[in-house]
Amino acid sequence: MELSILLTMVLLAVFLLSFFFLMRSMASPKEMEGIPGSLGLPIVGESFAFLSAFSKPSGIYSFVKERQQRYGKVFKTYTLGRFSVIMTGREASKILLTGKDGMVSLNLFYTGQQVLGPTSLLQTNGEAHKRLRRLIAEPLSVDGLKKYFQFINTLAIETLDQWSGKKVLVLEEASTFTLKVIGNMIMSLEPTGEEQEKFRANFKLISSSFASLPLKIPGTAFYRGIKARDRMYAMLDSIISKRRSGESIQQDFLESLIIKHSQAADEEANEDKLTDKQLKDNILTLLVAGHDTTTAALTWLIKFIEENPAEEHREIQANRNGGSNLTWSEVNNMPYTTKVISETLRRATILPWFSRKAAQDFEIEGYKIVKGWSINLDVVSIHHDPGIFANPEKFDPSRFDAPIKTFSFLGFGSGPRMCPGINLAKLEICIFIHHLVCRYKWRALEKDDSVQPTLVRMPRNKYPIAVEPL
Ligand code: HEM
């Protein structure tokens, strides 16, 4: 494309965006005047302060913390073209996560809405949302996941075979491992080969388009993400048609949806069945929601247990009668590791805030919140509240020996939008950690606790370690 055309398109997009932000800023809700906080400068609001917080060691949390110190637990702001109220505390989490009659809408950014498509689980509410949740519940249950155990186990062993005596970036290794697991679980994708490479390349582009500017013009991250999404959908179309024609049959997540819940192109519209578009939007949703989160959790956990070793795995290995490999019943009986996972999710708070549209009018801390407003729940503060978690900076899995107060531990969320991938995430982590701890010792090559400027909190330095066999 000629440079002049590209330049004109960029200018047009900037003009349209400014106009859009201007209109939005003029439409500031009157009722928000009673909420403490600042809406910042005209048009841009507090967007610059918000964006610059991404590069601070504690990421976006520094933006929130600064304002909490100034205004208290509930404050308003105007960032990236959006008015929102940020709040924290158990009461706020109960109201926002359970909603009235279980009706809780997520509040995705425009880029996420466009990439994932309108029928994604993340964009449906009420009955339609409940129905989608029911469809994916069985294949993601502990029993439903049993058939993937051997694949995950072998992949963990093979991945770790490469670590002996090496320096590795744990985040990169964890990212490759979790993507191979979910690609295989959803559509039986082989862990190596051309298809895997294409899948991986497209997925990376899709992932990075979420936090990009919403400019759909060639050369931008958003445009590349949309194109990669289209290629991913073409790949899924081809797999779906092979499955329907009987050319290929697999025992995976996609197959279970196609057989039980999907509507073939020549079938009459049926509300209880998924169209191919719904099928694809939701497969992509699971990939996106499940990949970075599990990658981050596995990486933080490896970092925390280097500092606080876990003995459970060597005991499991020692108690094993003769057999040398991990079994399904062992992986389902790791009580200490389960607490280590919870403490990792508390301490690192991988999803630092949950975004919602207020489903009803309500009052909190004496302030009136109006239905439809964009609300963000600050989870980092809840997870670091010394009134609930004494000495909150300390990594201490024994906090989870006794039940935790409701709505104060939100590692996998709570209420109707609680994470449906919890069993898969725990399975992957338990298997990987078992083999890691039984085979190796490792040490961090850098001391750095800062987080990456991404929506999912990950160690900025990717956690480099040196690995030695035991
Ligand atoms: C350790 C790894 C994981 C963590 C920490 C995690 C965390 C969360 C949290 C906190 C939420 C709720 C967000 C909110 O309320 O706004 C959530 C929702 C969700 N998670 Fe996970 N997740 C993980 C793994 C997975 C996996 C493996 C999958 C897919 C197989 C998955 C799929 C989803 C989906 C689809 C939702 C949206 C549910 C809805 O809106 O009804 N997650 N996750």
Automatic annotation (TrEMBL):
MF (Gene Ontology): heme binding; iron ion binding; monooxygenase activity; oxidoreductase activity, acting on paired donors, with incorporation or reduction of molecular oxygen
Name of this protein: Abscisic acid 8'-hydroxylase 3-like
Subcellular location: Membrane
Family membership: Belongs to the cytochrome P450 family.
Keyword Thylakoid carried by entry: no
Predominant localisation class: membrane
Pfam families: p450 (PF00067)
Involved pathway(s): Secondary metabolite biosynthesis; terpenoid biosynthesis
One GO term of the biological process aspect: brassinosteroid homeostasis
Lineage: Eukaryota, Viridiplantae, Streptophyta, Embryophyta, Tracheophyta
GO cellular component entries: membrane
